[in-house]
Structures are given as C-alpha cells and as structure tokens.
Design goal:
alpha+beta; single chain; 18 helices; 4-stranded antiparallel sheet; 12 strands; about 425 residues
Length: about 425
C-alpha cells in the first residue's frame, strides 16, 4: 500500500461525469474529396491498397464486430456509409458534419463505447490516416499504455497489495520500450498475456513471470471491485475477462472526464479520441496525472501513397445522375421482386379495371375495382393481370435484367458501363 490510497479515487472524482454517447463530427472539403476517391476504388483494388490485414493479436484486444475483419462485408458497409457524405443531394455534404451515436458492448452497462452501425470509429487505420492527414482540424489523442497504467493505479489504491507485488507492472509502465526489447515481444503479446487466465509453459518465458505477478493481483482486484467486475460469459478466461471489464470501465471514465473538460471531442476511439481543435497536451496530462495516466498526440500519416493510381472517378461522377440511381434501383427491384411486386409496379396496364394489392398480416388480397365499386376480392393474382405481367416480363423486363447483370460488377455492386443501361420510365 502507498500514499496513493489516500487520494480521491478515480470513480469518486468522475462520479458526476455523465457518459456522453452522442458526438458531432465536423469535416471539411478536403475530407469529402478523399471520401469520393475512396468510393471510386473497386473491391479488388480496395483489398490490395486500402484494406488493413487482419491482425489477430491486435483485434482480440478491441472486441470488434465480426464484420469488421471480413473485407467483403466491410467494403459494402464502408461504401454505403460514404454515400451519405458524397451524394450531391446529401444533407451531410452540405452541412459538413455528422451526428453519431454510441453504445456500450452487448449486455454491458458501462465500459468502452462503440459506434452504432458504421461510423468514423469503424474506419481502419489506413483509411483514417488517409482522410485526416495534413488537416489542421483533426488531432488523434491517445492514452499511453492505458490498461497497464490503470492496473498500476488500482494496485496503488489497494490496501492488500504491496509495492513489491507489482514490480514488473511498474517497470513495464515506466519503460515499456526497453521491456519489449528485453522480452523479445510486442505490446500485443503483453496484452494477450494480460487477458489469459492460464499462460502456457511454451510461451514467452519473460511473460510467464509477468503473468504470475498479475495473476495474484487479479484475484484481489476482482474481489475489491466485485460491484464492477460483473459476471462474464467468457468460460476460458473468466478472471481475465472480469479484470478487463474493470480496466475498460475505468478507461472510459478517464476518457469521459477528459472529453468533458476539453470539449473538443468529435469521435471516441477506445482509449483515446479524435479532437477537432488542437489540445494543450500538458493540460490534458494534468487532468489525469492523479491516476498515472499520460497522453500523447499521434500524427495522421498517409501510408497509401499510390492510392491515386487506383481511383476511377467516373464511378463517383455517375452516382449523382438520375440514370445511375434509377438503374441501380431497378436492378435491385429485379433481383428481389416477387410476381406480385411486378403486378403492383405495372398495375395500370389494364385501363378499365383497377387493381389494388393489400397485405394484412399474413393475408394477401387483390381488390379489383372501377371508378365506383369494388368488383372482386381475390387471394391470388388476377388472371388477366397475371397474363399481361408474364408476357411483359418475358419480353421487356428480361431484356433489361440481362443488360443490368451484364454490366454489374458483383463485388463492388457498381455498373461497369452506366451509359449502356436502358431504363424503364
């Protein structure tokens, strides 16, 4: 135990800080232009140039959604998200800001916060750096060695843990670079060790010793903070999972405390955030020095130097045209429509008798009517209309469908030759 235990605790200091879950991200023309270029890259070039290869050691520490590490799904979500900003009629493009809402992890009432759906927090590192490099409006603030410094803080607070009980934690917090070189590992190896209940004898021998020290501390802290270290569904590493939640819970409290004081956050990023004005790093460090948490500003550095070679701006140029929008909508209709959908779309083919398609729960009905009365109610498609629709589909719709398919790239969901698509009015 040390004098740190006499100080107000982190949770006491942050008790009045309400977790902010809505953020306003402002962006400029430079970012919009770069979004257009990213949108114009097809799937294969996206994977080769833009995609951050999956790093299992790293991603296990972030608790991302599964789709985040699947290039095809990520590409599709990323393109849909970009469209909100680059469409000529987009409200976001005109107002130059986006409101994004956040949530806790599934079944949690605290801890790290994650963007709902796809948002700026979902951007891979290469994309984020490309969008914001050389922009004076964006600053990436990061807590240095966050979880281990918070772990040291809790050790210092505990009356059951002596200074000698966390020597390696101290050493790693004060000299991380030297430790990693001496132990022949990287920071993700150390985080992986922290999140394991059992650390195998075939693993790094230096980390085996480190793991023994931490294991004793886990039991003490989980018991002391059992009101926070809630039950876990992690059957393989239950102790580590509960300690991890305590650290994530404290991490978010520190983050929220700083963001409330600085009032410049536009996007939280786990143990840091993107600010829209340049902070005074000394002021930020002063806010959290009582918990031993230090901050740094990381520069945005573009590593995709050859991205311009993979851009086809004709793809973006087409997106604003009615022709593109109509063709894409029509293609989606053809792909998904049922026979009744076709009947609805071309219901005015019979001029003397009008048809209305009605769905009430699981019951589907056709109403046949003229200008004055309902003539019939049917539970199947009207024979006359069915015949006309079938004939029309076989002769006209099929032709349009084949044109769309021939010019649609399945991966990018883009038309290869917009001008070739003939449209139905």
């Amino acid at each position: 135990m040390s004098d740190y235990s006499k100080m107000p605790t982190l949770f006491e200091t942050c008790t009045t800080v309400r977790d902010e879950m809505t953020f306003k991200f402002k962006f400029n023309e430079k970012v919009i232009e770069r979004m257009k270029k990213l949108y114009s890259i097809d799937y294969e070039k996206f994977v080769d140039t833009v995609w951050d290869k999956y790093d299992e050691k790293k991603e296990r520490t972030l608790n991302r959604e599964k789709w985040y590490n699947d290039p095809q799904t990520y590409y599709e979500r990323f393109k849909k998200w970009l469209e909100k900003f680059i469409m000529p009629t987009s409200k976001l493009a005109k107002e130059k800001y986006s409101i994004e809402k956040y949530k806790y992890a599934r079944n949690k009432k605290g801890g790290r916060i994650y963007v709902r759906g796809f948002g700026f927090q979902s951007l891979h590192g290469k994309i984020r750096n490309y969008l914001f490099y050389d922009c004076s409006e964006y600053y990436d603030l990061d807590m240095e060695n966050c979880h281990f410094k918070l772990l040291r803080y809790f050790c210092r607070q505990s009356e059951l843990i002596n200074d000698d009980d966390y020597k390696l934690i101290n050493e790693y917090c004060d000299n991380r670079k030297t430790c990693l070189e001496k132990w022949n590992c990287d920071k993700f190896d150390v985080l992986r060790m922290l999140n394991k209940d059992q650390y195998g004898i075939k693993e790094n021998e230096h980390l085996q010793v480190f793991h023994k020290e931490i294991s004793k501390i886990k039991d003490i802290l989980i018991n002391e903070y059992k009101h926070i270290c809630c039950d876990t569904t992690n059957k393989w590493n239950p102790k580590s999972s509960r300690l991890d939640f305590l650290l994530c819970y404290a991490e978010n409290k520190v983050l929220q405390y700083v963001m409330e004081h600085e009032k410049n956050a536009c996007c939280p990023f786990f143990d840091g955030y993107i600010a829209n004005t340049k902070p005074n790093i000394d002021d930020v460090n002063e806010l959290t020095q009582q918990w031993g948490v230090t901050w740094s500003i990381k520069p945005f550095e573009n590593t995709m130097k050859n991205i311009e070679d993979n851009v086809n701006m004709a793809v973006y140029d087409a997106i604003g045209s009615d022709k593109f929008t109509n063709a894409l909508n029509f293609f989606e209709f053809l792909e998904e429509a049922s026979h009744s959908d076709f009947a609805q779309k071309y219901v005015d083919m019979e001029k003397n008798i009008k048809y209305t398609y009605c769905v009430n729960g699981k019951i589907k009905m056709w109403f046949e009517w003229n200008d004055y009365n309902i003539i019939k109610i049917r539970f199947s498609d009207p024979d006359l209309l069915s015949h006309k629709i079938t004939k029309f589909f076989s002769q006209v719709l099929k032709m349009h469908y084949m044109e769309c398919v021939a010019n649609m790239d399945a991966n990018s969901q883009q038309f290869l030759n917009i001008s070739y698509i003939s449209l139905l009015n």
